[in-house]
Structure formats: C-alpha cells, structure tokens
Amino acid sequence: MSRSHSECYLGIDIGGTKMNIAIVDGSGKILALSSAKTPKDVLPAQIIEKACAETEALLGKQGMGPHMFPYLGIGVPGTVGALGIVAFAPNLGWVDVPIGTEAQKHFSIPIHVAQDTRTAAVGEFLAGAGQGMKSIVCVTVGTGIGCGMILNGKLYHGTNNACGELGHMLSVPDGKNCACGKRGCLEAYASGTALRAAAEEIISEAGPHSALSKEKPSAELVFQWAAKNNGRAKKALDEAVMYLGIALTNVANLLAPDAIFISGGMSGQEELLIKPLRQFIQTHAYRLTAQRIVVERAVLGQNAPVVGAALLAKAI
User: Would the pLDDT of 3 be above 60?
Assistant: First the structure.
C-alpha cells in the first residue's frame, strides 16, 4: 500500500472482548483491518501493549509506518478525561489509566483518545448513514451499552466529559448488579454481558446431561436459540429488547434526533434486535418524533467505532 499520510488515518478500538485496528482513507473507507482478542485478567499496560503491537503488525503488513499518519485515534469503553487518561472503564476494570501516555511510548505522532461510543458516532456521522444529517445518536450494543451524540453537527461531551452513559441509565431500582458498582443499570438487562448471563442460566437449567451443557455461554448463543424458537432464549431476548427500547424511546423523546443508529457486536441482529427496537420506539415515542425518526443499524456496523477513532480529529 503506497499512500501519503494526508490520505490515510489510523485508528484503534479497544473493546471488552476484542480490539480492532484500521487504516482508513479520508472518506472513512477501510483500507486495512485487523482484530485480536482483548487480554483478560491482565494489567491495563498489557492491554495497551497488545493494542500497540497489533497496530505495528498491521502497519508492517502494509509496508507503512506511524510517520505516514497525522495522528493515532483510540477508542475505549470508558470515560476519557484530559491528556488521554481513561478515568473509568468498568468493563475493562480501568481507573485513571494514562492510555495516551502509554501509547505515545510506541508512536511518535499525536494521540487522540475518546470513548468508543463517541468514536462510533463520529464514524457514522462522517462516513456512514449519518452523512447529511444534523443530529444523530449512535448506540453501541456489545459487552456494554453506551451512546455517542452528534447534536447540531457537533460531538457532544457533557460536563466532565461523562455524557452518553446509556448503559448506566436506571432500568430497575435496586435491581441486578452492574459492573459499574451500581444496581439496576440497563447494561445488566440488555447488553451482551446480560445475554451471556442468560445463556449461562439456560445451560444450567438444562442440566449436566443436556446437549446444551457442552456449549460455551455467549450472547450469540441466545440469538441462535431464539431463532430456533427456544422459549427461554426468546424470553431473555424479549426482555433485553424491552429494556433497551424503553431507554431509546426516552432518548428519542428527550433529544428528537434525526436518527438512532445501532452499532457494536450485537448490531448485526436485524430481525431479532434492530427490527423489534424500531417497532418499539415507533410505537411508544412521542407522536411527532415517532413519525420521522430513523432507527437503523449503523452502516459501518461493528466497524463504526474503529473508523470513527481513525477520523476522530476531524470532529474534535
């Protein structure tokens, strides 16, 4: 690949279960992409080291170097403060992690860090279905749940850079425990983590001699079982759609955006997730909002966060 630095952008998206690295052009088109598992039960520095090593490997395969890029954009599943410090990332167990400083040890180019839900919104706004719109909400549904908001053409940050914590909106007072330390959060009922817990329950209920006992619990399993009309899986999925639908209906009524886009690891489930959510919102939202709001899968799909990370400096 032979391109000048002015034509290419580099981004990393670090998720709770996997990380993506991408090289994109100025329009957001992916020129090269790689993925790797996010290490579990290790120090934050080791995860950052892994991400940087994977990035260097991708660049090496393309015959490129960091100097060919104006900056490196990084998306993380947590609140990012000044100087690229991740103040809190519950799904990674991070508190006050200086990811910008750590990444700078590997790359002698500017580092820009933002919450992954915001990078997803940037990606969709600049390179996806949000092009031409003024206000969008991009909801990331995967290990956790969050959202990035472009309001009147600008990325919204909120006080203390802590807006968009959709996954920690209260769904059930004193309900299930959440990774953030609170109880009753939306993530505990409608995230990939919640569906994985449902899969564990289904397998446990089936008993040690059931064919299900050999299955490894995952959110994907719940979707597979629901598609085959497994009653317990359908109930778990219907509950997740209901709780997420309530939250998104409230967001729609509060902000009246042009669109709500769904990205993240569960966004590929059109029939079992996106379509039911669209129907729920259009049924329950304020009439004028329900008549015009678009509810769709993010065009960039699971790649929205990494494309937005690469294009991040264009929106901040």
Answer: no
Q: Would you say residue 116 lies in a domain?
A: yes
**152 and 229 co-located in one domain:** yes
Half-sphere exposure of 91 (CA within 13 A, CB side): 27
- Whether the pLDDT of residue 211 is over 60: the answer is yes
Please check whether residues 173 and 235 belong to one and the same domain: yes
pTM: 0.83
Q: Is residue 128 part of a domain?
A: no
One domain for residues 174 and 202? yes
CA-based angle 209:210:213, to the nearest 5? 90
Distances in Å between the Cα of 92 and the Cα atoms of 28, 85, 88, 160, 239 are 27, 14, 9, 20, 26
The pLDDT, as a whole number, for residue 7 is 82
Q: What would the pLDDT profile of 151-184 be if each residue is shown by its tens digit?
A: 998 899 888 888 999 999 999 999 999 988 999 9
Q: What is the pLDDT of residues 241-297, one digit of tens each?
A: 999 999 999 999 999 999 999 988 898 899 999 999 999 999 999 999 999 999 999
The rounded percent of the chain whose pLDDT value lies above 90 is 78
The confidence score (pLDDT) of residue 1 equals 52
For residue 96, what are the domain limits?
5-123+304-314
Give the C-alpha separation, 43 to 78, whole Å: 16
Instruction: Look at the chain and report how many structural domains it folds into.
Output: 2
CA angle 109, 113, 116 (to 5 degrees): 135
Give 76's strand partners.
115
CATH number at residue 13: 3.30.420.40
Which residue in 80, 77, 47, 58 sits closest to 10, CA to CA? 58
- Answer yes or no: do 150 and 118 share one domain: no
Q: Which is nearest to 68 in space by CA: 107, 29, 17, 95? A: 107
